[in-house]
Amino acid sequence: MDIKIGFVESPRELVITTDAKQEEVADQVTEALSNDAATLQLTDAKGVRYVIRARQIAYVELGTTTQRFVGFAGA
How many domains does the chain have? Predict the structure, then answer.
């Protein structure tokens, strides 16, 4: 699943690919933003850990957890 994070006063966004479930990530983000936590910590599919300042987050877009098929195999 891809997670896109937009930041305040920045035209760029951070894209993280993770194996975590959508609900788990949504709960982490909601908890970090609603409890005035200083940081949001996420880990990507390769094990890289991201520590993000919660106050700088403008939006978080959570992708779908379903697998997309490419080609004509499903046609």
Answer: 1
